[in-house]
Write a structure and sequence with these properties.
With 242 residues, this protein is mostly helical. It contains eleven helices and no strands. 67% of the residues lie in helices and 0% in strands.
Length: 242
């Protein structure tokens, strides 16, 4: 009975005081951030590289659950050379205009400088016009995924599959289209299998043609050797009396 009464008192106490508070997340320090070995940024990169650098930084911040204040400070810490001078000037301009210097405002300024909208729109157009061409399936899929992130509309999985499928070489497309695959990874893998099978069949056909050509050449030489030599017949002089 005493044990039951104690359990009841504990349950009542838990209802009155509520669940135990969750411990605060660990602090995101500069030392912890640098353990991920983030790359420096000097501003002398292509728009694609600048966009990828910012995504790599955000991936680290999300993993460490860094607050926005730390994100801004740590990102600026990684600036060198031209990028460092750009941000010093841009921050002065923002402060003179009484603009709030926040992480989101910084990202907008950064992308406007190093990955402008004109480049983003060009990437979107390139994605919409992308076909396999002379690329392998693996190269085509990699390019498709890289450009797909610049498409402004939401990408439905089935739409991605049909877009990728329509850009394949005609012979491979005819092999995978009837399957109606709606998973992008599965579609890419199936297309790679078809590509490999097609290459193997073509290689076998080339070998067979080479063997057939070699056999016909050998037969011709054998038949030529079997022909009798044409010998000149002795001529008898007519009308000559010894």
């Amino acid at each position: 009975m005493d044990a039951l009464r104690q359990l009841g008192e504990n349950a009542a106490g838990a209802q009155m005081h509520g669940p135990h508070p969750q411990p605060p997340p660990p602090e995101c320090s500069l030392e912890d951030f640098l353990k991920h070995q983030p790359a420096k940024f000097d501003g002398k990169t292509s728009p694609d590289q600048a966009d990828q650098w910012m995504k790599d930084m955000e991936r680290i911040f999300d993993a460490k659950r860094c607050p926005n204040e730390s994100r801004l400070a740590f990102t600026v810490y990684m600036f060198t050379g031209e990028a460092e001078h750009w941000w010093a000037s841009m921050r002065l301009v923002m402060e003179e205009r009484h603009e709030e210097v926040t992480w989101e405002a910084f990202k907008r300024k950064f992308l406007s400088e190093y990955f402008p909208d004109s480049v983003r729109y060009a990437k979107e157009v390139e994605f919409l016009q992308l076909v396999q061409g002379d690329k392998s399936i693996a190269e085509y899929a990699e390019r498709f995924k890289r450009l797909g992130r610049f498409y402004t509309m939401s990408l439905d999985e089935e739409w991605r599959c049909r877009k990728f499928e329509n850009g394949l070489h005609g012979d491979i497309r005819l092999m995978v289209a009837p399957l109606s695959i709606k998973d992008f990874a599965a579609l890419v893998e199936r297309a790679r299998v078809m590509e490999r099978m097609k290459a193997e069949v073509e290689a076998q056909q080339v070998q067979q043609q080479q063997k057939a050509s070699g056999s016909s050449g050998s037969r011709s030489r054998v038949e030529e050797r079997k022909k009798p030599y044409s010998r000149s017949q002795p001529q008898v002089a007519r009308g000559f009396t010894p």
